[in-house]
Structure formats: C-alpha cells, structure tokens
Amino acid sequence: MGFAETFKALSDPVRREILTLLKQKALSAGEIGGHFNMTGATISYHLNILKKAGLLHESREKNFIYYQLNTSVVEEVMLWLSDLKGDA
Amino acid sequence: MGFAETFKALSDPVRREILTLLKQKALSAGEIGGHFNMTGATISYHLNILKKAGLLHESREKNFIYYQLNTSVVEEVMLWLSDLKGDA
DNA sequence: ATAGTATTTAGAAAAAATTCTAAATAGATA
DNA sequence: TATCTATTTAGAATTTTTTCTAAATACTAT
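The joint structure predicted for all components is written out below.
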C-alpha cells in the first residue's frame, strides 16, 4: 500500500485512462471494459492493481460492482511529488 | 516526453530514490551509483530513463556529468494528478 | 433450484523491464 | 600521445508485466 504500488499502478496508460473515466462517475467493470479493446479478464487485472494501490473505491449494487476514484491516495502522491519538488 | 514516459520513470523505486538524492544538490553518475548496490551500467540505464522522461538536467564539468532534478516536469505530473482529482 | 449475467481467477504465452559482464566512448592529465 | 577515470553502450540472462482463453465464482431473477 506504499508509494511503490501506487506509482506502479499509475505507470500504465490503460490504468490511467480507467482512472480518468472514473473521475466523474462510478462505473461497473463491464462499463469500463466497454471503453477498451480488451477482454474482461484483462480489465479485471488492471482494476485489481488499481485497487491494491488504494486508488479505487468499490461498491456493490445488484449484480454489478461499481468502481470509483479514491482521491485521497491521489493527494498522497501529489504530496510526495510536492516534497520532491522542494515544497516540503 | 509525454506522461507515459514520466509515470513509467517514476514507477521504479531505484529511480525515485535517485530523484530524492538529486532533490538537494547535483550529483555525478558515480556519486549516485555510490548510494546503490548496483553496477554503474545499471545506474546509467536508470539515469537514461529519467533523462528521457525529462526529469533530469545534466551539466558536464571536467570528467564528470552532474545530474539534477528538473522540477518543472514534476510540476506537470502534479497538474495531471490535480486534474484527475477534480481540481481542474 | 435453474438459468443468466457480471466479474474474477488460473494458467500460459508474449512483451517489456531490470540487471549483469564486457567492451566502447569521452574527456582529463601526465 | 598514452594513460587513467567516468560514463555509456551492447548483448544476454532473469524477472516482471500484460494479455489472452477457459474455467470458476457470485449474485439475480425466474
């Protein structure tokens, strides 16, 4: 759950696009998959990496699992960068 | 030179530690290598990735090449994250 | 309970990243 | 020029990441 996992999660373009999609509204795994030319299994793999990094919140509803961006971890990354920059 | 390269560069723990070292003062490749249990060739590999991502500034002096953090690219990453967070 | 839809897990294949050793380049100094 | 030091490049081995197919799980609804 440290920065290592979070930066790794952010390093993949597919995962960054997923986060961008989730910036506005929560989406189910299937809806997310609809935006990519990939199997559901691959989307699930990416969602799992984002989840482990703490970047997602999930909520179950009916038969679906809705994913949403967890902004607090984004803020933590920004703090790390801010410190690196010298604003410590 | 886009975000892809920069996030990839930031995703490795060795490279993040290099950036942290360079936060304060410029260091030569050899000095950087002294902080890690790796060959100079490997350090050079990492420096090259950071350089391509625009995260480093280099200046030659005598026989040495001094590397320093380029904070402006760090700021660009922070802006991307800020936008993701919703501060757009 | 059965059948249907959504998502995840397992295992394997392919691609990318990390590291090393050995050799090459670049510049400095004697 | 010859040599020494600093750094990079080339090539190969290892590890990690990404992706797929096929199967499994989970939950809904008939």
